[in-house]
Structure formats: C-alpha cells, structure tokens
Amino acid sequence: MAFLMHFFAVYGNLVNFIGINALMALGLYVTLSAGQLSLGNAAFAGIGGYTAGILTMQFHAPYILSITSGAMLSGIVAVLIGLPVLRLRGVFLAMATLSFGEVVRIAAVNLTITGGAQGLVGIPNKTTTGLIFTVLALTGYFMAKLRQSRIGWSFESIREDEAAAASLGVNTTFYKTVAFTIGAIISGLAGGMYAHLNFIISPGEFGFSAAVQLLIYNIVGGTRIWYGPLLGATLLTALPEVLRGIGVTAGPIRMCVNGIILLLVILFLPNGLISLLSRSSSIAGPRP
Amino acid sequence: MSLLLQQLVNGLFIGSVYGLFAVGYTLVFGVLDILNMAHATVFTLGGLVALWLVEGSGMSIWAAFPLAVLFSGLLGLVLDRVAFAPLRQRSDTYFSGLISSIAMAIIFESAALGLFGAHTVRFPPNTIKTDIWRIEGVTITSLQVEIVLVALILMGALSLFLHRTRTGKAIRAVAESERTARLLGIHVDGIIASTFFVSSALGGAAGILFGLYFDALSPDMGRSIELKGLAVIVLGGMGSIPGAILGGLTFGLSEVLTVAVTGKSNLRDAVAFTVLFAVLLLRPEGLLGRRRAREV
Amino acid sequence: MKNERFRKGYRLILVLILMVSVRSVTFAAGQEVKIGAALSMTGAAAAYGATQKNGIQLASDEINAAAGSDGIKIVPLFDDDASVPQQGINVYNKFINADRVALIIGPTLSNTAQVTNRIAQQSGVPVLAISNTAKGITDIGDYIFRDSLTEAVVIPNTIRVAKEKLGIKKVAILYGDDDAFTKGGYDAFKNALSEAGIEILSEMTFAKGDRNFSPQLTQLKSLNPDAIVVSALVEEASGILSQARQLGIPATVPIIGGNGFNSPALIKNAGESAEGVIVGAAWNMTSTNPLNKHFVDAYTNRFGSPPDQFAAQAYAGVYIALEAVKKAGSADNRKAIREAMAQIKDFDTVLGKFSFTAGRDADHTPVVQTVKGGKFVVFGE
After folding, report:
1. pTM of the model
2. Average pLDDT by consecutive 10-residue portion of chain C (381 residues)?
3. Domains delineated in chain C
4. Cα–Cα distance, A186 to A163 (Å, whole number)
5. ipTM
6. CATH number (domain holding residue B12)
C-alpha cells in the first residue's frame, strides 16, 4: 500500500495524462478509421478545452455541463467544417484541417475571452483520475460496439476503397462527416477534461505539433483496432519517464529516441505495435 | 508611394526565399505524391552546416555554400534510403511516407540541437560585404539582390535540368507515371534518389540564404517556414515547379500587403491560412497545378 | 568550435575529478542539499534552459569547492520539462516524491510555473523561480519565491529614464502577441507609456519564430516615431534591430526593449545595429561589483561565451538558496528553508543587493543599459 501511495505521488500525473492523451488519440482514431487523415483534432481539443474552461470560470457552470458543452460545440464545428472539407482526400484533407487548426490557434491568441497568449489561467482542478479512466473505458466500449455496427462497417469500407464503397451504395459523404464529428466530440471532451486538470491552457498547446503528436500516437500504436492508439499514447506518454528511469540524460537524446521509435515502427510494424500483441487476421498483415 | 514600393520590395524578397524553399518541397511531391515533412529540417541543417564551415574552418561563404548545399543533397539521399525507399512497395506508401518523414524530421532536429546547441547564432559579420542602396525612399541591399539572383538562378537551373537533361526528363517521366517509366527502361529508384538529392540541395540552399540574410540560425528555424512552405505549394499547385515559385511570391506579397493595407499585423497568419483553406476548397489543384487523377 | 567543445569537455572532467575527490574525503562531515532544477532543455525555450543550467552548475561547483570538509554542499539535479507544463509536472513529482529535494529552482517558463508550482505549494516544497516574469506566479502560495524582477518593475523604470534623457513624446510599438512573456511585456509598456503621457502612434505584432520584420518596420517608419518600443525575446530582438537600421530608420530613433534584450547575443547577432539600443533589465552585466565581475569571468572562462541574464539569475538563485539553507540550519527541512528564505534581506548577489518583498517577489534595483562601442553600458537608473 505504501508502495502504491508512493508510486502515485511520483507518477499520478503521468497516469492522468496517459488517460487524457489516449482519449485524444481515440478522437483522431475514429476519423482515421474512416480513412480520413485529419490534422484538426488538436484544434477540436482546443475548442473543447477553451469552451469548458470559459463556462466554468465565467459562468460558474457545473463541471459536467462545461465539458459536455465543450464536446458538443466541437462536434458542431466539425459538422460545419467537415461538410465542405471532407470532399478532399489524403494530403489535401490533412492540409485543409491543418489550416483550420492554425486559424483556431490564432483566434485563441487574439481573442480577449480566451486570455490571449497567456491563455486561460485559473481553471479549477476538477478532473479526477477515476473520471478520466471511466470516460476512457466507456469510449473504448463505444468504439468496440461501433466497429461491429453498420457505421463501423461503412467506415471500414470507405477506408479500404472509397469509390468501391460508394458504388456499393454507402453514403460516403454522410459517413465521413459522422467519423469526423465523432472524432471531434471525443477530442473536445478530452480537451475539456485536460483544461480542468491543468489549471492553465494556452493556444500553443493545441497547435500543429500537438496535431502531429496525436497522429504519432495512432501510428505507433496501430490504427487497425481501437486499442492501438491507446497503446501508442500510453507508451509514448510514459517514454520520457522510462528514459529518465534508465538514465538517459535529459535533452536532445530523448527527443532523438522518440524519432527513432516512430521510424522503426513505421518501417517494420506497418500496423503499429499492436501487431506484436495480436496476430489475429483482422489486425495484422499488410494488404497486397 | 515609397511606402507601398518598399513593401512590394519586402514582399518580393521574402517571396523568392519562400519560393526556393517550396520548389524542392513540391518536386518530391510531384514525383512521389509524398509530402516530405523533413524538408524544413534539411533547410535548417543546410544553414547550420554552412555556418559551421564558415566559422569553424574560416572558409569563405562562396566555398561553404556549395559544400553545404552538397551536404543537404546527401541528407536527401539519406532520407530516401532510410525513410522512403523501404516503404515504396507498400500500399499505404503515401501515408506511411508522411509519417516516416515526420520521424526523420524529429531525428534531424534533435541532431541539430545536440550538435549546434539551442542558441540562435549568425554568420560572422561581413561574411558577405553588403551595400545599402536608397532610391526614392526605398531601401534595397546588395545582399537582397544577390539572394534573389541566387534563388532565381537555382530555380532556372532546376527548370533547365528537368527539361534538358536525361536525368531531368527521366524525373518528369517518373512523375507522369512510374510504371510507364519503368517500361521505358528508366532506372526508377535511381531517379527517385536523384530527385531527393536535388530537392534537399535546394532546401539547404534556401536555409543558407535565409540564415545569411536574417542573421538568425537555430535548430528550430525550420518550424516557422514549414507551414508557410506547405501553404505555398498548395497555393501554387502541388507538384508544380512554376506554381511553387509563383505561390512563393504571392504568399510573400500577401503577407506584406495584409500589413500594409490593414495597418495591422496580428491577423497576417490568419489571413494566410484562411486563403489556403479557401484555395483548397475552391481550387484544390492550386494556381498552376493540373487536376490529378489520384489526389492522395 | 571543435576546440571550444574540447576545452569544455576537458574542464568538465577536471571539475568532475575535483568533485569526486573532494566528496570522497569529506562525505561524512559535510551536509548535502539536494536542489531540483526543472529547466527547459528541449522545446521552444531550450536556449534559455541551457544558460540557466550553466549558471546553476557554476554556482554549485563554486559552493562545493569552497565548502571544505564541514561546509554545506549543493547537489543539483537537472531535469528537462521540454518547455511544456505536462512534462514539468512529471519532473516536479519526481523531485518532490522520489528525489525528495529540499527545494526546486525553475521552471524556465511562466506557463509551466503556473501549473507546476501549485503542486510544490500543496506538498510544501519551496520553489525559487529564476526566470518567470508573469503576473501571479508568487500568488500561488507562500512557498513560491522568485529572484527574477518582473517586467512590471523593470519597464516603468526604463520608460521614465528614457523620457527624462531623450525627451520622447510619441512612440510606435512592436511586440510578439503569441507568447506570454512578450505579450506581458507589451502590457507593461503600454501602461508605463500612458502613465508617462507618451503617445502611441501604432502597434504592430509578430509571431514567435518570425525572422522577417520588414513589413511591420516599414509601416512604423512611415509614422516618424521618436522611438520604437519593442517587446521581444533576444532571438527576435536582434533581427528587429538590424532590419530597422537597414530599412533606414535613423539611429536618432532609439529602440527600447526590456528583459528579453539583456543578452550578449543581442550585440553578437545584431552587430552595429545594436548601437544605441536602450535595454531595461534586471541584471547589469557591466556592473563592477566584484561578485558580478567574478561571475562574468568565471562563466566566460568555463563555457566559452559570456553569460546572459538567464544565467545570472540562475547563478544568483543557487546562492540565495544556499543562504536560506544556512539560515534555516537544515539541509532538508523544507518548512524551515521556506521561513528562512522569506527573511532574506540585502543579500549580496550578482543582481545587486537582493531582498524578497512581502509577496516573495524579487526586490533590487533595475538598470537601464545602452550599447556603446559593442558593449552594454549603464544608461541610467
């Protein structure tokens, strides 16, 4: 028991952030599972985080109302942005969502209500470890159910071959928007919880590098199944602590190890680390 | 009037640096349909290595420039070997290539940080003797003129290379269709490697010129140009060389004119990205791009 | 460059040997104080973390060498917060619960401090901030101190001196709007200018990482201001200076900056364009105070380049911490160290006579410097 107390004192925050990062990674996973490469999910987390923070601080809204409103607003913006943008494919979609993300970040820098560059300071600490992992478990369960549903099947078919899916009568625009929106809602929720964990949020935390980081969690973990991004987020969030533990000096070397891990995974484990754990046919194996 | 003229000069100058950065970026995309996210770190390393040559060995910039450009080109070969070639036969090569180039970007940036330190450094004063000319209230420096000239020469040389030489024609053939090129007996892997060499050499050259003019090199200097470079190649049309040049100039001018016209600068980047967003929605092939069968 | 690195390595080995040999003889007799240094060694603020680390290392080695067999020794533990709060919390938790440090120095960035210092406050671990200048850092609680003079103190003083000496009436402002430090500096400038009755002709912004400032400077030049007030960190500041002069803004129009400008890198990177720049700052690097002279020489010798303000405040921080430990009479009683630190008054540091205010903020005289002949000199006080 004493050991557990000590462990939590040193690594409690790490555990919390593993949960939050995993949730954010899941948000992007939904979009990726429909074959859509989005770099806008960090911005959705930002919308959720700022909305929740502002509601709590300015309007004294209850915590649950704040974070759900943040998630909903994120979802609404996703529908508005998604409808025109999801006509684009691959890199073009990535770039459109990236410019959306930059506009959101710059807006947060320039608005008064968001606190400008300094950010939103003094958000009460209301997110508990229990809540983070409850939400994460529910989201995971939802993902597993989704995968077996018609929606999940449609996502999968669009990811495999969009033209073929359309010819089979799948309403691709509709399902792509659904994937994008669910992803944004999850990211927005994670953003709201993050804001209530961190006391302060600032625009830079939701910029381009954050968007790329979410992508990296997914790739390292694997995007073939929902627990892939969970694994990726867990390992990479814990990595600096692990490196610290085994005595790798702080500084550029840790950064370099990060890059090398990403490179090795993409080169040798095309379906992510998850393919090491499970060799079931639904997950592993590069397709022809 | 001189105010507006000065702003036009500012815009054309920075635009030509953006253009030079973007031609290399877009070249790889044109041939492979892959976005090379490590391009900005090659830009950084090119500049830092040139500085290291000038400062460390007392070399003249005229000798250091080609050496550092060569080094950047070699980095391109490394990128191709390590990050792209092994993925080439994979069905998701466009996506996995993007990721492995992000990995290389992280590795390159950490190398720059480890080798050169985090500080912002500059070329020693008088690395290039600079004259300042003032004409009708407009200021132009000889360095600016030289940089624009070097950029134009390099971009011109690239066009000649692509249209007149065997390798250049082969690069264009591979860009059109890799399969057809293979059938024509072109050594595709070698051609792709030379594409990376040329692309990275140009990126490195842009980094050196940028460092020479702005007197500020640091391991993260690529970050500020990375997103702008993306915007430029989308604006010009992904894969189009003249488009990248035109896109660079347009982007440079729009940055300057937003400030000049509104008298405010805080929305400069927001305007740029909103324009990018609009271009993607209305004309995804960009200003000079062709509509691609496979928009990956 | 290679030579310099070699020399650095050589010195480091010497120091290590010295430390090990000294320690092996005296381990039993002396007391050791563990100080956690949470610094940004990678990420956006890596450049500042690097000199802070140097400053702390230098001070600790000096203290340990002078401690002899029965004196107090400093054990600095360095870790990287990667310039983000999330990593900062992990480092703090490790320092507080695993390493059980006596006190923490850092973190480099105010935004990280806003988050991490709450943990230290809850756990009752004293924190000495060495570079945070944002409002409200020390309001987090009574365990939070800082030796970095804020922009809110430095800037009004700078504007007052500049107005007295130069008679400026109308200025233009250029500042970074997406960074908490430069935005805070802008707010302070704006207040100070309006209180001094100086007219603001125009306000322009730039973004972090920008290197091209000519569009903004061209606009500002056309307004013919008496001076240009700039809130920027040194990376941007040097570019602003050289581009301003290149665009033909005459040397009679001075450029006025704050703490961010107070670095030898400003002169190194801006060259001749740095002449005449007015820099209000917390640390007077040209001070002939023997402590300061010793610091500048020792630092330059060891690291091959002169210190900046980040290094000076870090170096001073270790001595302030040592003083608190001595007064507390304990190397690990965090509460006693906090009490003792709050009592520190007129303590001689490289920053000058140093005291803490009742609100645990730094209290010492700021300086206004200018650059003449490639060197910082005092412009006024």
Report:
1. 0.89
2. 52 50 43 95 89 97 88 93 90 93 94 92 96 90 95 93 94 92 93 96 91 93 96 93 93 94 91 94 91 96 94 97 93 94 96 96 94 91 71
3. 2-149+288-363 (3.40.50.2300), 151-281 (3.40.50.2300)
4. 28
5. 0.90
6. 1.10.3470
